[in-house]
Every structure is written in structure tokens, then in C-alpha cells.
Design goal:
Layout (H helix, E strand, L loop, with lengths): L1 H69 L13 E3 L2 E9 L4 E10 L2 E11 L9 E3 L9 E4 L8 E3 L2 E3 L2 E4 L4 E2 L3 E3 L3 E3 L9 E2 L8 H4 L7 E2 H4 L4 E4 L5 E4 L9 E3 L5 H5 L5 E4 L18 E4 L14 E5 L2 E4 L6 E5 L7 E7 L2 E3 L2 E4 L6 E7 L10 E3 L9 E8 L2 E4 L9 E10 L2 E4 L2 E2 L2 E2 L1 E6 L2 H4 L17 E9 L4
Parallel strand pairs: 5-8, 5-30, 6-9, 7-10, 7-34, 8-11, 9-12, 11-13, 14-20, 18-21, 19-22, 20-23, 21-24, 22-25, 23-26, 24-27, 26-28, 27-29, 28-30, 29-31, 30-34
Antiparallel strand pairs: 1-2, 2-3, 3-4, 4-35, 15-16, 17-18, 32-33
Length: 481
């Protein structure tokens, strides 16, 4: 019995030992699994943190590239083979100009073993209003505003350059636009009107002319200078107030008597762009050599201080209109180009041709400002309804209010060509139909300002020498370079 009992106890001790060993093995396995799981979670956590950090590094690179693009510089940063160090990681950026006014910026960020990338779409408005052949900001917010182009056959309107309307654009008949057509509203066009897809629902900023404070920021205050003018007769027509040839403002005549009817139709004094010290040329040939000259003071051997590269401020109305002359041309030389900005607090009226003596280097900007005391102000009118002599304007033109061409009549101009641009803070109103006949409008965009070939003083909302890019979209993309 003793031996049997001893054997039972021994068996029980052996079974307990086996159970204990198994428990130890299980606990060890569980512990090992827990250690392995913890290590895996640590690795996952570290990888997740590296991925977040890599995205931050990529976004830092993108932010740097976008800041440069906003200032006009589109450039790469580092490269895949030679990345730039940042915040314990590294990044590189590529910037690609697509050549269609859009650009793509892609930024890669690497941190630890993680690589992330972001991509942005940019678009440029260039120099704002000066990037367009025809521009209408529609500052009044008129939802029914249409910028219209029309005509058929040889009389169809032609625009070589971009078009923008803060309302709608309507292209009818045989009218064509060789450039981008943009509108905050809709674009209705014949199939052949434009080679590129119109863009709708877009906006372009309108310059803040009030902030320019031209009443203070100018070179010559014409009205003030005419306080000392004398009343004289001249071959240009009738008698008028005029200044000595040495005065930069001698290129204007005030309230000429032979245009009393025109003067009486306006609320303010009327200044006419014409030089009483140059010979009258009444030729109907539209060429600078056949035009009546307008010579700025101080250049080309003329007396007085230099009248070029100056802002002339006129509190009144400005006319290019003479009963004996078809065309006026700014006089210049290759060494001394004629470049002026004429700012008018009132209206500007074009009835005669304005030509450049040297189209490559000369430039004139006409800016019409609104006068709070005058409802009819800040407008540019063009067309000669009586004699039909207006056919060509070489100029950059900006009306704070409206650009009108609604004075066509049976004897009006059959065609008008603008070499420059037609821009309005509010609306460009083109109404060139009379008696079933359409008067052709041709606008040839002058890109010299935007390209930096020339500069004109005191222009609103313009940055010379750079093209600022605007962000249109930003997203994370597949990180493979």
C-alpha cells in the first residue's frame, strides 16, 4: 500500500510539472507575441509619424514655391538627386510653365523612409487689364451686360488678343477673336469665333483708381498751368487759350472758338490735344508722315523741360478732334521716344486719328476718371458722326466708367482700328450698327507693356517686369517622382 500511494503522488507531481511547463511556455509565447506586437505597433507609429512629417516637408516646399510664383518667379527648388534639407527631412520642387497661362508645381517631401508629394495648379492673369485687347470690368454688377462683337463678311469685327467681360460675351455673325475669351458670366459664340475654349465664371480685379490719387500724384497739372494761358488765334482753328512752346502743356488748346458747339455740350472746360507750334497737315492719308505733329517739350531740340515719361493731369474733358485735320502723331526719335500718360477727370472724345511716329518705342495712355460731381464722366467716346474721319487709334485706353462707341451715323466711320487696347472699369459698349450697315471694329492688342518693352508712367494696377501667378488648386498626389 505504501508503494502504491507513493506511485500516485509521484504521478500527480509529474502531471503538475507538465502543466506548469506548458503554462510557462504559453505565457512565454504570449509575452513574445506581446513584445512582437508592441514592436510592430512602434514601427507602425514611427512610420505614420514619418509619413506626416514627409507631408509637412512637401508642403513647406510647395509654400516656398508658391510665394515665389506670386512674386512672378516660377522656378524649381533642389532636385531628386540633390534635394534641399528641411526640418530633419529633405524636399525638392519642380515648376512647369505649360505655355497656356497655366503652370504645375509639384513638391516632394521625404522623412525617414516616407515620401509624400503635393501638386498645385496655377494660372496667370498677367498684367490684369493690360493683358487684354478688350476689357470690361462691369463694376456696376449689371447681370444683363453683354460685350458684343458682330458684323458679316468684310465688315465683321476682328480682335487679335484676349477679351474679358465682367458680364457676358456675345460673338455673332462673322466676328472673330484670336485669343482667350473670358467672362464672369456666359460666352455665346459662333463656332469659328475663337480658337480656344472660352472660360466662364472667372473674375479679373479692377484697378483702384481712387487709390492712385492723380490729383496729387502727377507731373503736370494742366488746368493749373492754363491759369497763365493767353487767348490766341491759330491755323488749327479759331482762337483758344494756349501756353508758350516751352511749357510741357503747350500740346493742348483750351475751349477753341471754332468748336464752341462741342464745348457747350460738356459741363467742364474742354482741352484739345493739338500743338499750336506745328504746321497743320490736312492730308487724309493715315500715316505718321502725313499727320499733324504733336511735339513734346524738351525732346528733339524743343524748348522747355522734358515732356516725355510724364503724367499730365487734366481736370476737365480731353478731345482729339479738329475740323481741319484727320490725324495727329506724337513726334519722337529713336533716341528720344514719346511716352506720356494723359489722366482726365472727365470724358475723353476721339474723333481724329492718333498715331505713333515710332510704333516700336512710342506710347501714350489715356485714362478717363469719374468726377463725383458729374454723372457723365470717366467715359471714353470714339467716332466722328459728322465727318467719319476716325479710322485708327494707336493708344492704351482706360475708362474708369464706360467705353462708348454709340455715335455712329450714316456718315460715320465705316471702320475703326485700335492698336493698343480698349479697357473699361465698367462696360465696353459697342454699338456699331446703323441703317442695316455694320461699322467694322478691329482691335490689335499691343503687348509691349506686358512684355516690358516699354513703360508708361502712372498706370494703375500694373507691375512691370513680372507676371504674378494665382493659385487655382492644391492637392496631394501619387508620390512617385
Amino acid at each position: 500500500m505504501v508503494d502504491a500511494t507513493h506511485r500516485v503522488r509521484s504521478t500527480r507531481r509529474g502531471s503538475a510539472l507538465i502543466v506548469a511547463l506548458i503554462a510557462v511556455m504559453v505565457i512565454s509565447a504570449l509575452a513574445a507575441a506581446m513584445l512582437i506586437g508592441g514592436s510592430s505597433r512602434d514601427r507602425e507609429r514611427d512610420h505614420s509619424l514619418d509619413a506626416v512629417r514627409a507631408l509637412y516637408v512637401a508642403e513647406a516646399g510647395m509654400s516656398t514655391a508658391l510665394a515665389a510664383a506670386a512674386a512672378g518667379t516660377l522656378a524649381d527648388i533642389g532636385s531628386q538627386g540633390a534635394p534641399s534639407a528641411f526640418g530633419g527631412g529633405e524636399m525638392w520642387v519642380t515648376a512647369v510653365d505649360n505655355g497656356d497661362r497655366t503652370a504645375i508645381i509639384t513638391a516632394w517631401g521625404r522623412y525617414g523612409g516616407s515620401l509624400r508629394s503635393t501638386q498645385a495648379m496655377l494660372e496667370t492673369q498677367g498684367a490684369g487689364i493690360y493683358d487684354y485687347a478688350c476689357f470690361a470690368g462691369n463694376s456696376s454688377g449689371d447681370p444683363g451686360y453683354d460685350m458684343r462683337f458682330g458684323g458679316a463678311g468684310a465688315s465683321a469685327d476682328v480682335v487679335s488678343g484676349n477679351v474679358y467681360s465682367g458680364g457676358n460675351v456675345v460673338i455673332a455673325g462673322g466676328a472673330t477673336i484670336s485669343g482667350e475669351v473670358r467672362a464672369s458670366g456666359t460666352v455665346s459664340a459662333v463656332a469659328s469665333a475663337t480658337p480656344s475654349e472660352p472660360k466662364t465664371g472667372v473674375g479679373v480685379p479692377i484697378p483702384d483708381l481712387a487709390a492712385m490719387n492723380y490729383a496729387v500724384n502727377h507731373d503736370y497739372n494742366v488746368a493749373s498751368m492754363f491759369a497763365s494761358a493767353t487767348w490766341k488765334s491759330n491755323a488749327l482753328g479759331g482762337s483758344a487759350f494756349q501756353l508758350p512752346e516751352s511749357s510741357p502743356a503747350h500740346i493742348f488748346r483750351k475751349n477753341p472758338s471754332d468748336r464752341a458747339t462741342d464745348n457747350a455740350g460738356t459741363a467742364k472746360d474742354d482741352y484739345y490735344l493739338e500743338d499750336p507750334y506745328e504746321s497743320v497737315n490736312g492730308s487724309s492719308t493715315i500715316a505718321a508722315a502725313s499727320a499733324t505733329r504733336i511735339s513734346l517739350s524738351g525732346i528733339g531740340g524743343k524748348p522747355g523741360p522734358s515732356g516725355s515719361n510724364k503724367v499730365y493731369y487734366i481736370d476737365g474733358n480731353l478731345w482729339v478732334h479738329n475740323r481741319n485735320i484727320f490725324s495727329f502723331a506724337l513726334t519722337s526719335s529713336a533716341a528720344e521716344p514719346a511716352r506720356i500718360t494723359l489722366v482726365v477727370k472727365g470724358n475723353i472724345y476721339f474723333s481724329d486719328n492718333v498715331l505713333y511716329n515710332n510704333p516700336a518705342s512710342d506710347g501714350v495712355a489715356f485714362v478717363a476718371l469719374k468726377d463725383a460731381a458729374q454723372t457723365d464722366s470717366g467715359n471714353i467716346y470714339f467716332g466722328d458722326p459728322t465727318f467719319g474721319t476716325l479710322e485708327r487709334m494707336d493708344a492704351f485706353m482706360y475708362a474708369e466708367n464706360n467705353f462708348y462707341d454709340n455715335n455712329l451715323s450714316a456718315s460715320g466711320s465705316a471702320k475703326v482700328t485700335v492698336n493698343g487696347n480698349m479697357t473699361a472699369g465698367n462696360q465696353v459698349r459697342i454699338n456699331r450698327d446703323f441703317g442695316g450697315v455694320h461699322s467694322k471694329l478691329t482691335v490689335n492688342y499691343d503687348g509691349r507693356l506686358v512684355n516690358g518693352d516699354i513703360s508708361l508712367p502712372g498706370l494703375p494696377g500694373f507691375q512691370f517686369g513680372s507676371t504674378a501667378w494665382e493659385l487655382r488648386g492644391w492637392r496631394e498626389v501619387d508620390h512617385q517622382p
